[in-house]
Amino acid sequence: xxxxxxxxxxxxxxxxxxxxxxxxxxxxxxxxxxxxxxxxxxxxxxxxxxxxxxxxxxxxxxxxxxxxxxxxxxxxxxxxxxxxxxxxxxxxxxxxxxxxxxxxxxxxxxxxxxxxxxxxxxxxxxxxxxxxxxxxxxxxxxxxxxxxxxxxxxxxxxxxxxxxxxxxxxxxxxxxxxxxxxxxxxxxxxxxxxxxxxxxxxxxxxxxxxxxxxxxxxxxxxxxxxxxxxxxxxxxxxxxxxxxxxxxxxxxxxxxxxxxxxxxxxxxxxxxxxxxxxxxxxxxxxxxxxxxxxxxxxxxxxxxxxxxxxxxxxxxxxxxxxxxxxxxxxxxxxxxxxxxxxxxxxxxxxxxxxxxxxxxxxxxxxxxxxxxxxxxxxxxxxxxxxxxxxxxxxxxxxxxxxxxxxxxxxxxxxxxxxxxxxxxxxxxxxxxxxxxxxxxxxxxxxxxxxxxxxxxxxxxxxxxxxxxxxxxxxxxxxxxxxxxxxxxxxxxxxxxxxxxxxxxxxxxxxxxxxx
Amino acid sequence: xxxxxxxxxxxxxxxxxxxxxxxxxxxxxxxxxxxxxxxxxxxxxxxxxxxxxxxxxxxxxxxxxxxxxxxxxxxxxxxxxxxxxxxxxxxxxxxxxxxxxxxxxxxxxxxxxxxxxxxxxxxxxxxxxxxxxxxxxxxxxxxxxxxxxxxxxxxxxxxxxxxxxxxxxxxxxxxxxxxxxxxxxxxxxxxxxxxxxxxxxxxxxxxxxxxxxxxxxxxxxxxxxxxxxxxxxxxxxxxxxxxxxxxxxxxxxxxxxxxxxxxxxxxxxxxxxxxxxxxxxxxxxxxxxxxxxxxxxxxxxxxxxxxxxxxxxxxxxxxxxxxxxxxxxxxxxxxxxxxxxxxxxxxxxxxxxxxxxxxxxxxxxxxxxxxxxxxxxxxxxxxxxxxxxxxxxxxxxxxxxxxxxxxxxxxxxxxxxxxxxxxxxxxxxxxxxxxxxxxxxxxxxxxxxxxxxxxxxxxxxxxxxxxxxxxxxxxxxxxxxxxxxxx
Lengths: 515, 487
Known about the structure:
The structure holds two protein chains of two kinds.
Chain A: H1 6-21, H2 26-50, E1 59-64, E2 72-76, H3 78-97, H4 106-125, H5 129-138, H6 140-150, H7 155-184, H8 189-193, H9 199-216, H10 225-232, H11 235-260, H12 262-288, H13 293-312, H14 317-348, H15 359-362, H16 364-378, H17 384-399, H18 401-426, H19 433-436, H20 443-461, H21 464-481, H22 501-514
Antiparallel strand pairs in A: 1-2
Helix pairs in contact in A: 1-2, 1-4, 2-3, 2-4, 3-4, 3-11, 3-14, 3-20, 3-21, 4-5, 4-6, 4-11, 5-7, 6-7, 7-9, 7-10, 9-11, 9-12, 10-13, 11-13, 11-14, 12-13, 12-18, 13-14, 13-17, 13-18, 14-16, 14-17, 14-20, 14-21, 16-18, 16-20, 17-18, 17-20, 17-22
Chain B: H1 3-9, H2 11-30, H3 35-58, E1 67-68, E2 73-74, H4 77-103, H5 110-127, H6 131-149, H7 156-187, H8 192-199, H9 205-221, H10 230-237, H11 240-265, H12 270-293, H13 298-319, H14 322-347, H15 366-369, H16 371-385, H17 392-405, H18 409-434, H19 448-461, H20 469-484
Antiparallel strand pairs in B: 1-2
Helix pairs in contact in B: 2-3, 2-5, 3-4, 3-5, 4-5, 4-11, 4-14, 4-20, 5-6, 5-11, 6-7, 6-11, 7-9, 7-10, 9-11, 9-12, 10-11, 10-13, 11-13, 11-14, 12-13, 12-18, 13-14, 13-17, 13-18, 14-16, 14-17, 14-19, 14-20, 16-18, 16-19, 17-18
């Protein structure tokens, strides 16, 4: 790709705006933040347009030897591209969500969010392992401040928990990175991805990375920081936390753990499956009994991310593509759900489910969108949730039928807690007068939910747009880890499939039979 | 080696000695009214001395050409690097001190002179090539430092700090001297190269005790666990500009001296002291982190933070490789920037009557009343905690990189895990400043010099600092190389 450093520009725009926001008053800061995120969104679209599907694996590469010990190297493949798109797509919505609800220290708030955007893009675009680490770790600071300053009642406890939990995970990863760089003699991620570490060493390295990514993901049982952080964070903070920050864990697995340590990944696959199975069942059941909307969605995130991890550790193309789509879909859907909660929270200032009821009467349009996102979260065909969940489960089915069986119950449980939530919030009678008096969506809220709804439907109806950019990268990854793939127990005969959609359809019957 | 060559090599020390003596006379004749002039001249002398040592550093001077007075003194790149850090710290102390002491009507003319003599002593410490030189430098620095700690004569806390520092410092010197005498007794020489050669064949029990006692004495000076107990009291009691000085320059000097003694004199016997350093290092990290949690005074907190940081720096020594030494030197530079920034920020915390605020609880909500100062403190705290992209991360990164490259992976993992404990109390400060409701105590105007130094420190520890890695890395590499080729 040409010499224009578009990735650097995408990092620079929010960064510059973040600094400027610190010096502006509330109104100007809001406007500037919106403009900066929209500019980044535009740049993101340009990036996608110019991304050469089927071209070189790493595109838009930039490399400057600015530092000793590591270099400023950026570049993306299809996987990173999609996650960057997700980040830049969600950011303007986050700013919109904070437009009215944040009224104290607006400049600093917007600054923190824009800094967050820079760091998120940086994580996905970094091609140097230490640069990656810095972006990865630096994200803690703005998020700590966002939760701690603008959060709810127990914000300080949540902020501490978030920070220290994640930090402990990542410092171990850093030691592993230092070791890898010492052994392999390079900090370049693409080179490290094809470097064969000694399998006995891989075990330790894998565990160190696992410590970080499992916390970030988050996987059961180290997920406890997530409900705390989500519940206390302001709406936009939850959106970005669920939408993008959790994806860093999945991205880490797909970028580091799998390609760099295939043997160890295979060794520990059953651990991942076990944790994921536990997560799906346990956190879904926990979600079922929540009284707090945000907590419910937070627990559902843990369950959904468990589907992502089993897809990743299925060691086949379906599973990997499925988990990528699942991540993207979850980014949109959970973001949208938190936004939906935020919209009514702004009106009533409570997240207590019982305080609402019958919203479909006085807020019919809101109820419509909320329903769509609920269905997408359940994984109804036609929405984005279905594609990802289905492919992930189809992928794992080839390897472990038992895991599939247990994880598929997550779909049923997911339907249960989401529909139960929806029934209590939107249906039934209007038992609370103040909830019944709430106005329907206004223009600003339309502008936030409509793009999300369109994206959810787009991904559900025509996922090819999202699969195409990453197909080659996933294939390369699959080829890389094939040598260590655990032997499957289902022995699925693939038939004479020409595209990957076809076998997926044929499997539907078997898959449905599993639950 | 002729005398003129030797005298040329100690030009920075000559400059400082003459400047110190002349300024002492000016102080005697001019009295306290001349203190401002003396401060300015003292800073000029420090700048001149820095200019004199710079060529040795940039040229990566090492080997026999750098040894003066028959190996008693080394003017190599390592010494130059440490001296520049010492002189910068001393100059910064002189710049920030007047605003503080004038408030108590305690700005006296001998303050700059004492700082100059302390800096001179520290320069001799890092250049020492002989146990005698070492001791002279150490005592020269210490005597000036005891007086500085008690400089606010009317303040009981300051007197207490001075006395404690003196008693414990004297004890440490005694232990060090005992170790030196054992070393001398079992090797028959006081020069580092001689000791190194004498120990090449093997280590007798007596010499081992010599090493242990010397290490204990030095651990006192760098306030490493288990010899750290004096630090919080002295840091809290001493006048804040003096605490700034103690936290920066003597740390550099004592660590530089420790590196020289361990890597030059006892370099052949690294296996004998590595485990001790390993323990001291991890213990300092953990005790520094845990001790800080309960502190309510920000100066005490910074004292524990410095113990914690010394632990991290010693990780580089435990590895005993040039890479480790280079990492230590790099960390020291960042540490100086962070400490200067942190203490200057503390100096800027004044209530409406101009009294200095040291209670952490009174900083509540500072981000709303003084956003720029709050941002500065937050940056220092995050940097001390080693969170990227702040520059403090890079220091930790380098020492642990050296540890991993040197095969000490368990040390690196433990050290990093312990750094999470440290993060807790740094976060606590940020939490109080940013999350709590404003106490609105800090209202006083800040001195322009304080603002300037805080700004410079913050720029260095900001992500922009990473642009320095290449240049500073080449300097520390050269300095570390010089250390390993001094003999």
